[in-house]
């Protein structure tokens, strides 16, 4: 795996935001003993949820950059997949390990499975639920 990198995303919980940040800082210190840890993107790039709610749907689509350079929240990914958010996914989300021929076989298998439409509907319902959070 030399010369290869992977991105992971961790979420820290605490009784307060400062406690969660403290847990995060300690984890970063510990991880730096084993591997380089790049700095987090500046917080100024993040819009608050209140700011996002105040925007109209058209403003939301215009406010989103063409290519996001940082990781995305579950809610933003759900909005993207439901067609409510326009963006090009960053390279971290473009990793795809199936060989091209296997994709067609996988699609055929899915479409021939009688339970697949119900599965797709369940995924759509879960995405809608994530959007409500």
Automatic annotation (TrEMBL):
Ranges in a coiled coil: none
Region (Disordered): 34-67
Compositional bias (Low complexity): 47-56
Protein name: Si:ch1073-75f15.2
